[in-house]
Amino acid sequence: MIPYGRQDITADDVAAVEAVLRSDFLTQGPAIPQFEAAVARAAGSPHAVAVSSATAALHIAYDALDVGPGDVVWTSPNTFVATANAALYCGAGVDFVDIDARTLNLDPRALADRLARTRRDGGKLPKLVAPVHFGGEPCRLDEIADLGREFGFRIVEDASHAIGGSFKNHPIGDGAFSDLTVFSFHPVKIVTTGEGGAITARDPSLLDRLNLLRSHGITREARLMRGESEGGWYYQQVDLGFNYRMTDIQAALGTSQFARLNAYVEAREARARVYDAAFGPAGIGAQARASDSRSALHLYVIRWPDDAPIGRREAFDRLRAAGIGVNLHYMPVYLQPYYSDMGFKPGYCPQAEDYYRQAITLPLHPGLTAAEQDFVIDTVLKLAGRASS
Ligand SMILES: *Cc1c(COP(=O)(O)O)cnc(C)c1O
Fold first, then answer.
1. Beta bridge partners of 362
2. Which end of the chain has fewer CB atoms at under 10 Å, N or C?
3. From the alpha carbon of 196, which atom of ligand 1 is closest?
4. How many CA atoms lie within 13 A of 331 on its CB side?
C-alpha cells in the first residue's frame, strides 16, 4: 500500500535517539530544551514548550488562556476531533463556524457574520477561537486577529499540519496574529517525535503557565512560589496541572528531524505541483493555496467530481484496492456521534459537509516516489473518467 503519509527516519535520527538511551536522562534532561529551541527557531518564536502530543498542547493552551466552564470555543468543523475536545476538557462549550470552500479553512467572513449576529442577539461570544491550518494551508490570520480585537476573543492556532509554513512572511507559530500556536509531531505530520506536540508563546506569563500545566502545576522556581523555599528539596504545586511531558528520547528524534524541515516541505511542494499539473487541467478540484502564504502541505486533498462515472465512495474503495492508501480528512467534527448527542444537526456547516461528501486525501510525503505518484495520478484520472489515452 502506498501510504498517504509516512515518517522519514535517517541514520542520524537513530544515532540521536541512541545517544539519549545511553545518557543519564530519559526524561526531564537536556534534550528537551534543545528540542524546544529547534521548534522555536523554525516557528520564529522566542519560546516553545514541548509536550506529549498536540492534544495535550491544545488542552493546556486553552487552559492557560483561562478557558473554563461558561465559556465557549469556536473552531472549524474541518479538523481532527482534538481541536474541539480540548475545549470540553476545560469544561467549556464548543461551536463550529463553516469553512471557505476553496481554502477548506475556517471562513473569516462566516466568522465575522456569526460574531456580529451573536452580539446583536445578545448571545455568548467566544472566549477563544481556534483556527486550524488545514492541510498546512495558513488561515487568514490577519483577518481573524482583527476580529479578535473587535470581539474580544483569544486565538490559539492549531498548526498541527503547518510547521514550516508561513503567512505573509510570518512563519507559522511566530505569534504575530495569535496568543499561542500548537504543533503535532505524530508520525504522519511534517516532522515527528513518535508522539509529541509543542506550543509556541511570546508572552512570558503564558509561558510560565504552560510550563506549570505540563508538569502537575509544580514549580521549583522561587519566583513562582508563594512564600519562601524551605530548602533544596522543596517544590510547590501552585496550579492544577497534568503530566504532559515529552521524553528526551522523543525530543532527540525531533531535534534531528528539524534539521530537515525545509527539505521536507520542499519535497512536499514538488509533489503537490505534480498533482496540481495533472488534476487542474482535468477539472479535479484541490485545496487552493494562497500566493501570499506557504503551505507546509501536510495533506493533498481532492474533491471527487460529481460528473465522474463512479461516486466518491466507490472511487475511494477502488483506490485502496489498487494499493493506494487514500484517506479522508475530515468528517465535520459535529457529525461525530459524541457531538450530535450535544445537539448538533446535519446541515449546520453546509460547506464543510459538501467538502466531506467529495473529499479524498491522496498520498503525499517526502518518500513518495515519482513512479508511485504517476500511478496515483493515472488511477485517479481513469476512475474519474478523465484518462486521455
Ligand atoms: C494530528 C492532529 C491533532 C492531534 O495531534 P496529536 O499529536 O496526535 O495529539 C490535533 N489537531 C489536528 C488538526 C491534527 O491533525
1. 300
2. C
3. 7
4. 9
Nearest to 196 by CA among 48, 53, 56, 33: 53
Spacing, Cα 214 to ligand 1 middle (Å): 17
Question: Is 133 touching ligand 1 by the criterion CB < 6 Å?
Answer: no
131 in ligand 1 pocket by Cβ < 6 Å? no
Domains contained in the chain, CATH given: 2-258 (3.40.640.10), 261-383 (3.90.1150.10)
The cell for 310 is 463512479
The cell for 77 is 468543523
Q: Is 75 in the pocket of ligand 1 (CB under 6 A)?
A: no
d(CA 9, CA 377): 26
Rounded CA-CA distance 307/384 in Å is: 8
pTM: 0.98
∠ Cα 165 80 92 (to 5°): 110
DSSP 215-273: BTTEE--GGGSSS---STT--EE-S---B-PPBHHHHHHHHHHHTTHHHHHHHHHHHHH
- CA-based nearest residue to 182, from 56, 41, 58: 58
pLDDT tens digits for 85-115? Answer: 999 999 999 999 999 999 999 999 999 999 9
